[in-house]
Design a protein that fits this description.
Oligomer: single chain
Number of helices: 12
Strand content: 15-25%
Shape: globular
Radius of gyration: 20 Å
Order of helices and strands: EHEHEHEEHEEHEHEHHHHHH
Largest sheet: 9 strands, mixed
Low-confidence stretches: 326-340
Number of strands: 9
Mean pLDDT: 90
Structural class: alpha/beta
């Protein structure tokens, strides 16, 4: 049973972000909502991150561990958290002024997740593009469940744009296939409560060399790993939904999601192969089945280009799709393309 004034645990995981972590912590401490705790976990940083974290003294709960990666670090912090709701904030991101006051009315027992837009900023904090993802102001889970059933995902912000009711993270079981904390959780949330979407940026997502480097490698091995992670989440989701008494629908997992077929197509191109006509026909069919309007047209044209262009040009096109930061015109949207 949630208290009348829900307690929020804000977890900041940090690895070698000495130049950003202080600003991140200050952005939370300056909020005009007081019923929260801040847990900052230094994941074995080799720079001066720990010294920066300690400067905040008893205003935060600071923990230092050996380097174990984002997922294990966040799970360790979760075990220390006391909140009714949990917010994982990346140490290089920041909360906007007044964000928690804006979110506070939605911290209700029926709400499983609150998601909001993020404004992309550069390493110095200057805005570099439009807020993302594009969200409609809604208070319901039906359309999101439909999207999962149809596409295997729904549009959601990166980690720093989501707050979860605590029980969404409980009894998740083995997540060895996963890299981040909220992969299966964002999928589970609509099945166990109401998801609130706020159509304004309440946080800032920082784009800089360190996080861009994680998108720099373009290999078929990486494509296959993304397919495995995507499918792993869905199979995990199906098990969790079946085991949760509050969930009202089942999840039927398929192998012909457009996202999966796109990754498989790009994997072929990256390996220097031309996708066959049957493969491309199935991919275009999946795109048409799952999308409408301009997005359907754009993805169909993208698929046809992979099939028709010389391999060198097709590889370049695939590289931009995998890492849109390679194209300055859509650099600010690179994270949105990989929110799933």
């Amino acid at each position: 049973m949630l208290k009348s004034q829900p307690f929020l645990s804000i977890i900041i995981s940090c690895y070698n972000y000495e130049i950003y972590v202080s600003e991140c912590i200050r952005s939370v401490l300056s909020q005009n909502y007081n019923n929260f705790e801040i847990i900052v976990v230094d994941d074995g940083s080799t720079d001066n991150s720990w010294d920066k974290i300690q400067e905040f003294g008893d205003r935060i709960n600071a923990v230092r561990t050996e380097n174990r990666g984002s997922l294990k670090t966040c799970l360790n912090a979760l075990s220390l958290a006391k909140g009714d709701f949990i917010y994982f904030l990346d140490a290089d991101d920041v909360l906007c002024e007044g964000a928690l006051a804006e979110i506070a009315p939605y911290l209700r027992p029926d709400v499983s997740k609150i998601q909001f837009m993020l404004l992309p900023i550069d390493k110095d904090g200057a805005p570099i593009g439009n807020a993302f993802p594009s969200l409609q102001p809604t208070a319901g889970s039906g359309p999101l469940i439909q999207s999962i059933q149809k596409k295997g995902y729904y549009d959601t912000p990166p980690t720093s744009g989501n707050i979860y009711r605590r029980d969404v993270y409980e009894d998740l079981g083995d997540m060895a296939y996963e890299r981040g904390i909220d992969g299966v959780s964002y999928l589970l949330a609509p099945f166990v409560g109401t998801v609130i979407s706020i159509d304004k940026p309440l946080g800032k997502y920082r784009i800089h060399n360190a996080n861009l480097s994680s998108f720099s490698e373009v290999t078929s091995k990486r494509m296959k790993a993304q397919v495995d992670r995507f499918m792993g989440r869905l199979h995990h989701l199906a098990e969790l939904v079946q085991s949760r008494p509050t969930a009202t629908e089942k999840v039927e997992v398929r192998n012909n999601y457009a996202y999966v077929m796109e990754l498989n197509t790009m994997s072929l191109v990256i390996d220097g192969k031309r996708p066959g006509i049957g493969h491309m026909s199935a991919y275009i069919g999946a795109v048409v089945r799952e999308n409408t309007g301009n997005k359907r047209i754009a993805l169909c044209l993208f698929g046809l280009a992979l099939f028709l262009l010389p391999n060198r040009m097709a590889r370049h096109l695939a590289a931009i799709r995998i890492d849109p930061s390679r194209s300055h015109q859509i650099r600010s949207r690179f994270k949105q393309a990989f929110c799933v």
